Amino acid sequence: MAALTRISRPSSIPFSNITKCLYFSTTSAAQPETTNNSYLPNINFSRKDPKDRNVQWVFLGVPGVGKGTYASRLSTLLGVPHIATGDLVREELASSGPISQQLAEIVNQGKLVSDEIIFNLLSKRLIAGEAKGESGFILDGFPRTVKQAEILEGVTDIDLVVNLKLREDVLVEKCLGRRICSQCGKNYNVASINVKGENGNPGMSMAPLLPPAQCMSKLITRADDTEEVVKERLRIYNDKSQPVEDFYRSRGKLLEFDLPGGIPASWPRLLEALNLDDYEEKRSAAA
Ligand code: AMP
């Protein structure tokens, strides 16, 4: 947890060092069955002492667990960008660029897109952020495979990996209730979850996360939030992404966090687990 005491330090690490290593050309949208290493970056990244830069965190967790919600809140609190690779993929899809048709097929089946495309999109996002003076990051939805984790580990230091966990029956309900405002792009959830406790597990209630009135008529459902695709995404997570938890666990970077319920119950507990519960107070005292 040493990194948590350093979060208010100014940042100076340029992203270009990371992006130089991550950026390479796009060829195919689908994740190849056997990964061809020839396109992988030639890694030569000089690591900076964490006290000289902003936080570099990763949020892991199955689709629908709430990574986006909590990563976005933390990014506002800590003043670091929240970078969700799923959002980058959706932006690429919406742009109707040369690979968007190929991407749509993969994403709508709940499958993973190729490492090449993900690293390209991530690199572009980091370069654009660097130009705006951003530093540090909270990554959400990346890395999704051990290979992605290895590449990331090869180019920079990740300080902390938060692994959000929630019961699977609740997850499916949450995914099916997920909505996005087609205008402002914010995420909401119309599901009202009330599950009884069983087999020693406590019950759980989650109120819907409804949008403001102006967004209500503009809500859309993600094409990959159907029951069939959600189940496929959960299967792929267990197959490809669960090993990423072990990857970070074995490096002593994984913080396991069982969500106790909706945002009102979970947010204060998460801040406590991250040693950030009195962060605002400390920050105003230091100012
Ligand atoms: P998400 O919003 O994180 O559920 O991502 C939506 C979709 O984007 C996923 O189902 C994948 O098809 C794709 N995607 C997002 N991040 C990655 C990644 N790190 N690796 C491969 N595919 C990804």
From TrEMBL:
<dbReference type="InterPro" id="IPR006259">
    <property type="entry name" value="Adenyl_kin_sub"/>
</dbReference>
<keyword id="KW-0808">Transferase</keyword>
<keyword id="KW-0418">Kinase</keyword>
<comment type="similarity">
    <text>Belongs to the adenylate kinase family.</text>
</comment>
<dbReference type="Pfam" id="PF00406">
    <property type="entry name" value="ADK"/>
</dbReference>
<dbReference type="InterPro" id="IPR027417">
    <property type="entry name" value="P-loop_NTPase"/>
</dbReference>
<comment type="subunit">
    <text>Monomer.</text>
</comment>
<protein>
    <recommendedName>
        <fullName>adenylate kinase</fullName>
        <ecNumber>2.7.4.3</ecNumber>
    </recommendedName>
</protein>
<dbReference type="GO" id="GO:0004017">
    <property type="term" value="F:AMP kinase activity"/>
</dbReference>
<dbReference type="InterPro" id="IPR000850">
    <property type="entry name" value="Adenylat/UMP-CMP_kin"/>
</dbReference>
<dbReference type="InterPro" id="IPR033690">
    <property type="entry name" value="Adenylat_kinase_CS"/>
</dbReference>
<keyword id="KW-0547">Nucleotide-binding</keyword>
<dbReference type="GO" id="GO:0005524">
    <property type="term" value="F:ATP binding"/>
</dbReference>
